[in-house]
Design a protein that fits this description.
Helices cover about 95% and strands about 0% of the residues. The protein is built from two helices and no strands.
């Protein structure tokens, strides 16, 4: 299950980066904000998985 969650976090991060970049190119502040929010959510998910992994060892 951990690998699935890690992959989901990485996918969300990439999706957020893409939205943010498209927002930069099109000068769409709303899209930039959505991208940043998705990246932050993904980073939290990845941090959670790292903590879980640390306790497994």
């Amino acid at each position: 299950m951990a690998r699935k969650d890690k992959a989901k976090g990485k996918a969300e991060e990439i999706k957020g980066m893409a939205k943010e970049r498209v927002g930069d190119v099109t000068d769409d502040e709303s899209l930039q904000a959505k991208g940043k929010a998705e990246k932050a959510k993904a980073n939290l998910r990845q941090a959670k998985e790292k903590v879980k992994d640390a306790f497994k060892k």
